[in-house]
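Lab notebook, bench 4. The sequencing result for the construct came back, and we need a structural model before the next group meeting so we can plan mutations. Quick request posted to the team channel:

Model the 3D structure of this chain.
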Amino acid sequence: MARILIIDDDPQIRDVLRIALKQAGFSTREAGDGPEGLAKALNGQDDLIVLDIGLPGMDGLELCRRLRAEKDTPVIFLTARDDEVDRIVGLELGGDDYVAKPFSPRELVARVRAVLKRSQGQAGANGMLRRGLLEIDPMRHLCRFDGRDVALTQREMGLLVHLMARPGNVYSKAQLSDAVYGPVIHVSDRTLDSHLRNLRAKLADAGAGGAIETVHGVGVRMGPCTRA
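Done. Here's the predicted structure in token form:
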């Protein structure tokens, strides 16, 4: 279930968004001003943020600018219909889409689904997988972070491809082992840990120290893939 952070100072709009998103199968949490929204965005593990531009305490454009310095969580801006300049600036700051007020809840849900699909490392027509500054081409066995090549073994590439395909998911060691080695091949936790450790070290050397996150007691997942 994808997690959506709603940041808007209007309780009525938050209610409309929460109901529409929950009916569509998403989990939600909320913030009512800029400082609270930034704190939750930086400290949480949201899959997408719905962000009002006209926030008290810190507007949505400044919040997005500060967020992008640390995380690449997808952002959909909520804007007033006439604020074309704000929409343009928001997209230039790293926003992924915008919805003008007043909006249709159905349209908002459709935009959320579309942005999540783009951001979740879905392979395009050329087979490339991208997340943040990280891109991989499984067919050509190529991996690059911020334009820098990262040399991976076959097993390391297999692990990364599986994690990139659904970056919001947390995978246990057993799930990763089945996906990369196959269910009929027994691989010890020590072997899998070794491959993960080497993969993390190579990504860290390239500048992506937080690309693979540990969820203690559960497993691992893709991180924001920005510069550490």
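Residues 3-119 form a domain with the Rossmann fold fold (CATH 3.40.50.2300).
Will bring this to the meeting.
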